[in-house]
Amino acid sequence: MMRGPLARYVATLNGLERKGRRRELVPHDGVDFTSNDYLRLANSTRIRSAIADALERGVAVGSGGSRLLRGNHPEHEALEAEAAIFFGTERALYFSSGYAANAALFSTLPQRGDLIVHDALIHASAHEGIAASRAEAVAARHNDADAFEEVIVSWRMKGGTGHPWIAVESLYSMDGDRAPLKELVELADRYDGFLVIDEAHATGVFGPHGRGLAAGMEGRDNIILLHTCGKALGVSGALVGANQVVCDYLVNRARGFIYSTAPSPLMAAAVREALRILAEEPERRAKFEQLWTFANAQLTVALGFEGSGSQILPILIGDNSRTMRIAACMREAGFDIRAIRPPTVPEGTARLRIAITLNVDRSAILRMFDALATVFCAEAA
Ligand code: PMP
């Protein structure tokens, strides 16, 4: 037994180990069925050249400070102007990560007396902001617009007089299913509320030019969009799309925006190029759609599971250790597939999260499902 100040951490780590929940950093290896580099842009020639050109033009590597001090570079402003046009919002604000943006949105915008009603499966970064918010927060059953309404109605009946904030992901990161956005916009309108839509896994993949699943709903005063730039866009950071007032308020009140060094101007230049690629190379998204549609069909053929209808294919296993074993077997077979366990997903729903990206082709998908079927058979024997 370890003694001293570190003993409690060791005890926790040992406890996680016993429950099959201890996490470890491992180098990535094998065919990519894990990354969110959906459009294969993370190492694309165009983005590499955009960064090289920016360096050539004298764009600095480091921003040198917070956006409100000396860290506000023309590259950030140019990106925000282009992103607002691209995503159809009055204004866009670039954050250093989606995590930071969600934390800022939920800790800053909902006020005391408001209600945050969030999907039960909302991302950890939204929880981070919600925990810091002065508003009351209630989880609603996953993807059930009626359940969201019930929460709002019961809060109003108990005297809630502020604004309700509906918080969802347009495409869920660990389930690959879509939120009922149309119904949720109606709810926000009906109850004088706001709708915050995290498009992290839809940006670049769905909607015209990859503008996301909320394309067509943007530009309204009560809708706030989050487009992360580290997934299909292949770079890093996140763009909040909203009206001028909301963005001005964030610049004045979001602590994570105010008190943090601005993202590298080079990353802003890279994201600008990624947006241009989305607009100029629609064939990339079309090819990707064919690929994930194929993967959904093959999942049913090879394993009898129904696909999610998106590029994210969860395979529910349930038991943590068994999920880890299967993922390890797949990595041994040369396929980079990870086990996703609680608390990232609800208790008892450990799963393999298979992400389809343009880093693989049809033959790799067929080989991967073959290997997975073999591993399942061996497990059952
Ligand atoms: N929202 C969702 C739904 C996500 O899946 C993620 C990343 N896993 C984030 C926000 C955070 O974005 P970032 O990785 O840019 O911090």
Write up what this structure looks like:
The strands form three sheets. Strands 2-8-7-6-5-3-4 form a seven-stranded mixed β-sheet, sandwiched between helices. The radius of gyration is 22 Å and the shape is globular. The chain has 381 residues and is of the alpha/beta class. α4 runs parallel beside α5 (124-132). Helix content is 43%, strand content 15%. The protein has two domains: 25-41 and 282-380, Aspartate Aminotransferase, domain 1, CATH 3.90.1150.10; 59-280, Type I PLP-dependent aspartate aminotransferase-like (Major domain) (Aspartate Aminotransferase, domain 2). It has helices at 7-18, 45-56, 74-87, 98-108, 124-132, 145-157, 181-190, 244-253, 255-258, 265-280, 282-303, 320-332, 362-380, and strands at residues 31-32, 91-95, 115-119, 136-140, 164-169, 194-198, 223-228, 238-242, 312-318, 335-336, 338-340, 350-355. α7 (181-190) links the parallel β5 and β6. The chain contains 13 helices and twelve strands. 4'-deoxy-4'-aminopyridoxal-5'-phosphate binds next to α4. 4'-deoxy-4'-aminopyridoxal-5'-phosphate (PMP) binds next to α4.
